[in-house]
Recover the amino acids of this structure.
């Protein structure tokens, strides 16, 4: 029995140069902007990406400029740009969400809820410090989802308000818009 040699794979040169570096920087900026919006609204990563896209479209600019505007929300100029204004409008819309029917539901215990709100707030602070950290964003995404499920609310903003009301916590002042 003779073995037939396996065909050799052709190696293609890896892409490099300024275009690749610029694309990587744009992706990194988009991820940082996603983290910032997740923490400010609060919302999921998917919703944050949709907000970025919608704001860029509304302002008639690119997604890259939308991401830069989101980053500038934390430390940008006093006078907001058109993209920042569009972002703030999108953030307000995301916070309001659809109206929800009142109904009977089982609510979590106050201690469990306090722990989840504390987890959410801690992750929110960490994401604002390091919005480019994917692991922190995933943690915040999970905390947002859990809070929505626990409170039976569709938007994280409504879930947080309801949780704070239920546990008697003083609501935090809104940030970023």
């Amino acid at each position: 029995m003779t073995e037939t040699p396996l065909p050799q794979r052709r190696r293609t040169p890896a892409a490099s140069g300024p275009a690749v570096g610029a694309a990587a920087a744009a992706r990194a900026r988009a991820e940082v902007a996603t983290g910032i919006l997740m923490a400010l609204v609060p919302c999921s990563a998917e919703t944050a990406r949709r907000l970025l896209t919608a704001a860029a479209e509304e302002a008639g600019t690119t997604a890259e400029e939308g991401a830069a505007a989101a980053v500038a929300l934390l430390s940008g100029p006093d006078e907001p740009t058109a993209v920042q204004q569009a972002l703030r409008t999108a953030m307000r819309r995301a916070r309001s969400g659809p109206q929800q029917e009142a109904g009977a539901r089982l609510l979590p215990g106050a201690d469990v809820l306090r722990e989840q709100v504390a987890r959410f707030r801690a992750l929110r602070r960490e994401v604002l410090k390091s919005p480019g950290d994917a692991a922190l964003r995933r943690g915040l995404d999970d905390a947002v989802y859990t809070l929505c499920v626990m409170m039976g609310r569709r938007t994280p903003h409504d879930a947080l308000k309801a949780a704070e009301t239920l546990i008697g916590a003083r609501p935090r002042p809104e940030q970023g818009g």
Q: What stands out?
A: The chain has a mean pLDDT of 82. The two ends are 74 Å apart (CA to CA). Residues 34 and 49 are 6 Å apart (CA to CA).
